Automatic annotation (TrEMBL), chain A:
Organism: Sander lucioperca
Pfam families associated with the record: Globin (PF00042)
Protein name from the UniProt record: Hemoglobin beta embryonic-1.1
Biological classification of the source: Eukaryota, Metazoa, Chordata, Craniata, Vertebrata
Keyword Protein biosynthesis on entry: no
GO molecular function terms listed in the Swiss-Prot or TrEMBL record: haptoglobin binding; heme binding; metal ion binding; organic acid binding; oxygen binding; oxygen carrier activity; peroxidase activity
UniProtKB/TrEMBL annotation, chain B:
Organism: Sander lucioperca (Pike-perch)
UniProt GO molecular function: haptoglobin binding; heme binding; iron ion binding; organic acid binding; oxygen binding; oxygen carrier activity; peroxidase activity
Name this protein carries in UniProt: Hemoglobin embryonic subunit alpha-like
Domain spans labelled Globin: 3-144
InterPro entries from the UniProt entry: Globin, Globin-like_sf, Globin/Proto, Hemoglobin_a-typ, Hemoglobin_oxygen_transport, Hemoglobin_pi
Family, per entry: Belongs to the globin family.
CDD domains, per database record: Hb-alpha-like
Keyword terms of this UniProt record: Acetylation, Heme, Iron, Metal-binding, Oxygen transport, Transport
């Protein structure tokens, strides 16, 4: 398999909230990006039901980070191979077996999963919690935010396998809502 | 979207052989999950008396959908031709926004992951994800 060198990924000037290509203005001081229409972004907090809070806390309290993290990242790299573009220095990613056995993938998968701990501990302010990580992913790592969704889907599949029948529709809804909020927070500082 | 390679088709057929007999459970669980996790999908079923994920209507619909997926597996060598009638149904009568095919595909994969944790390997996952995407494309064929 040909290995392509990693190209710097320039984020497009696409408005992330309305999908149209416009020039975005960053409101000075407030730290809040404006929407395409120029109106200030609605900063309503995410509301969590008691069930959702309890479910998220429960899932992460039982989480086997060293199993789930590596499995989720490996699955993402296998199922959506274009995500490998961000891991040019990870060595052998030539096939599924290589990816699943790659120690760098495993280590990074664990790191990513632990990154979610911050959100679990700050469910009422995930937006602010990930502001720095969002800047990192956009300015330094140049990750297309769509990839966050791809990884979320793989994480959902892996956690589902772990929890089995306990991963009911209601639990899945809470888990996916949580991941969607994290994904949104990570994509916020892109410009 | 990409075409299904021979390897993909083999992987799908192999996995589907293991699924045999459990199609109804998979279908009902997938539709129930879709209604629970993506409430906007309920808009297509406003004519049901009971919109809860475990309702008889939802269960029945899960079975119907799964029969379609099983049919698609048997027609994997020509999805466009094989699913023509179903595409016309979805395009002209049901008019389901194709974005929802992706949603249901995801729910199906989650159910397979739960029911077949050892068989639903990353390799099987990618083949099935590609297959379901191809089915979705074939279903959307007649839309415009």
């Amino acid at each position: 398999m040909t290995q392509y060198t990693l190209q710097a990924h320039r984020p497009s000037n696409r408005c992330l909230w309305e999908g149209r290509r416009v020039a975005l203005k960053v409101a000075s001081g407030a730290g809040d990006l404006q929407t395409c229409t120029g109106k200030p972004r609605d900063s309503k907090m995410v509301e969590w039901t008691d069930f959702e809070r309890a479910t998220i806390v429960d899932i992460f309290s039982k989480m086997q980070y060293e199993v789930v993290g590596p499995a989720a990242l490996a699955r993402c790299l296998i199922v959506y191979p274009w995500t490998q573009r961000y891991f040019g220095n990870f060595g052998n990613l030539y096939n599924a077996a290589a990816i699943s056995g790659n120690p760098m993938v495993a280590k990074h998968g664990t790191t990513i999963l632990h990154g979610l701990d911050r959100a679990v501990k700050n469910m009422d302010n995930i937006k602010a919690t990930y502001a720095e990580l969002s800047v990192l992913h956009s300015e330094k790592l140049h990750v297309d935010p769509d990839n966050f969704k791809l990884l979320s889907d793989c994480l959902t599949v892996v956690v589902a396998a772990q929890l089995g029948k306990d991963f009911t529709g209601e639990v899945q809804a809470a888990f996916q809502k949580f991941l969607a909020v994290v994904v949104s927070a990570l994509g916020r500082q892109y410009h | 979207m990409t075409t299904l390679t021979a390897k993909d088709k083999d992987a799908v057929r192999t996995f589907w052989a293991k699924v045999s007999g459990k199609e109804e459970d998979i279908g009902t669980d997938a539709v129930a999950r879709m209604l629970a996790v993506y409430p906007q999908t309920k808009t297509y079923f406003a004519h049901w008396k009971d919109l809860s994920p475990s309702s008889p209507s939802a269960r029945k619909h899960g079975v119907t959908v799964m029969k379609g997926v099983a049919d698609a597996v048997s027609k994997i060598d020509d999805l466009k031709g094989g699913l023509l009638t179903l595409s016309e149904l979805h395009a002209f009568t049901l008019r389901v926004d194709p974005a929802n095919f992706k949603i249901l595909s995801h729910c199906l994969l989650v159910v397979l992951s739960i029911m077949f944790p050892n068989d639903f390997t990353p390799e099987a996952h990618v083949a099935l994800d590609k297959f379901l995407a191809a089915v979705a494309l074939a279903l959307a064929e007649k839309y415009r």
